[in-house]
Amino acid sequence: MSGKRKMFIYGGIIGLIGAILMKMGNPGNMGICIACFYRDIAGAVGLHRAEVVQYIRPEIIGFIFGAFIIAIFKGDFKSRGGSSPIVRFFLGFFLMIGALVFLGCPLRMILRLANWDLNALVGLGGYVFGIFIGIQFLKKGYTLGRSVEQSKISAYLIPIVAVVLLIFLVIKPAFIFFSTEGPGSMKAPLILSLILGMVAGAILQRSRICTAGGFRDAMLIKDYHFLWGILGIFTLNLIANLILNFDNFNISFANQPVAHTNQLWNFLGMVLAGVCSSLLGGCPIRQTILASEGDTDAGITILGLIVGAAFAHNFGLASSGEGATANGKIAVIVGIVFVLFIAYSIVTSKNKEEIQNKGVVKNA
């Protein structure tokens, strides 16, 4: 089987899983949303108190378990990290801010588009533009440095946290919060969500599908390998939703579930998400899979995502169906300026170091 066909099939399975989860109870146009799911988990453990978005999403636990198990089996599980962790934390933080202003991660953006939420088309334009901006820094030598071997326990922390979350989800202790209304209360059955999440995690680990990587490689080196996976997600999700969720099918900008029509901020929110994903070397779903393989840098990024989600809801940055908030708009602009400054500083520092090294060699 050709690489393109295999990648399309891998992506198609992810798209199919998204449609099934939506049919079985997940929020509309949100069969899978990494940003929204981490946001719900942050609320469940009390990091924010937005009562309508609090739930320990078993899909996230499944992604981690599936990727962890297949990585162990295939010999891909390795403890590594130490590559600019504080920068990664803040890039993850602002990635989440951009996603929650748009109301969805890059993967949900594709799923929303497959359900003909035309607001996602605007978001897609912003995301690709953000990745394009990131590419300009990559061309100038931007890098977060090399990761090195870490202690073994560091690699197991994310899977261990997933186990703890699963225990909390099952026994429902009093200190864990669960929504009784709103998106957080809409959920597919626990076992089904966990199993499908594990299947998706295993597929994502083997395929290495990444929305940011797909668009980046296409623009930077004319490699369309991962784009076939993204196309598979879109195509199979579209077909599956025509069959399973046709009653919810709505080709329009207006009246879309968990979405708004404030197009400037749909665009700019995803510009921020695109720049951050490009500078991080992977979108939220890719960071989740990497963390499950023992990459502690990706684990730090996930912490940034979770803290960003808590911050967004504690300070009124996240959008709603009525549109982007004033605080959210300010946060997006601050975020874009901040991450561009970080990227510029890294490139400038690297170039100065190279000039100094050349001078040392010449004088020698």
From TrEMBL:
Q: What is this protein called?
A: Putative membrane protein
Highest taxon of the lineage: Bacteria
Specify the species: Gottschalkia purinilytica
Record keyword Cell division present: no
Q: Which UniProt keywords apply?
A: Membrane, Transmembrane, Transmembrane helix
Q: Where are the transmembrane segments?
A: 7-25, 60-77, 89-110, 116-135, 156-178, 184-204, 225-244, 264-285, 297-318, 330-347
